[in-house]
What does this fold into?
Amino acid sequence: MSEEKQARVLVVTSGKGGVGKTTSTAALGAALAHEGDNVVVIDFDVGLRNLDLVLGAERRVVFDLINVIHGVAKLQQALIRDKRVENLHLLAASQTRDKDALTEEGVAKVIAELRPKFDWIICDSPAGIERGATLAMRHADAAIIVTNPEVSSVRDADRIIGLLDSKTEKAEKGERVDKHLLITRFDPWRASRGEMLAIDDVLEILSVPLLGIIPESEEVLRASNVGSPVTLNSAQSAPAKAYFDAVRRLKGEQIPMNVHSESRGFLNKLFGRKAAA
Amino acid sequence: MNLFHLFRRSSAPVARERLQILLAHERIARSQPDLLGVLREEILAVISRHVPFDPEKVRIEVDRGKSVSTLAVDIEIPNSEQISGIAPPYTPLKVDSGADEYGPAMDQKVA
It folds into this structure.
């Protein structure tokens, strides 16, 4: 009996821009692939593609998602295989300014063609609530909602949660898209002093189960500077550990929710505690 | 530096409170789109049936609170000598009982 794979389709979404969707897509995709799964990450940000850059594949894009949709290229020709982890693949967005280039039927066809070939299909959503964002979430089995512990990002996350419950294929069939919250750029020190929303605050407001807490870290920028997901570039760093934990939770493991931290200076720690007390 | 922090009020509880109130309202608004727009139109329609006013001189304010919200409609009604230039043309104010039934709408709460 031949065992046909059926990929799990994830959308990484947020509403607000700049909260870490692309960084998280790259980090999670690379971590899943590193653990042995077959992964494809798709950039849905037509006109403003960046997943290729964060993955260090910007000079290797020949064909993109739009080319595949329009029949200019075969899917196999457009998939870019990562040079570090061979079972990680990228389907880049096009740089066209034509917003209508992304069609609902086209996206459905591409996802259907990818499903039997991979374990995970991760759709990197553009910011906003327009066509690109709704098409990215359209076929999702599960959603990773990325938010910073900050008011505007939490508000937009709430809006996106509403869309996930109404505009997705699953929602229209009366089923539920599994939702996971990924809090990025968290600073435990500032949160402990009441300067930043605490994890529990965000969870209480959004009522979505927590997938992971990615601490604010220099390593994230360093990784994107050199075009390597943080989970590959510095696997022992606090954010990488947090992404690896998130991946294990995605795969159903029960992992205690630690806030991985980079060691702060002795004085900072001492005074940080005092101020929070 | 730390003494300064001790005396500064923490801002995260404020953020949490503001978000809780805002999102409670936005979630309701999603299921009943533009309630405020409907209220505004209907209230103004009722009033314009009895009193002429300049649509530009209508101020509508909402204050969404945790348990109670207020909707304030402030309409500038011209005195009779200024009325002539304003559309719709002046119709004498009817002093019949029918006006009363619209009274409470002004205090309507948007919960």
In short: Chain A touches chain B at residues 150-151, 154-155, 158-159, 162, 191, 193-198, 201, 204-205, 271, 274-275 (CB under 8 Å). Chain A has a mean pLDDT of 92.
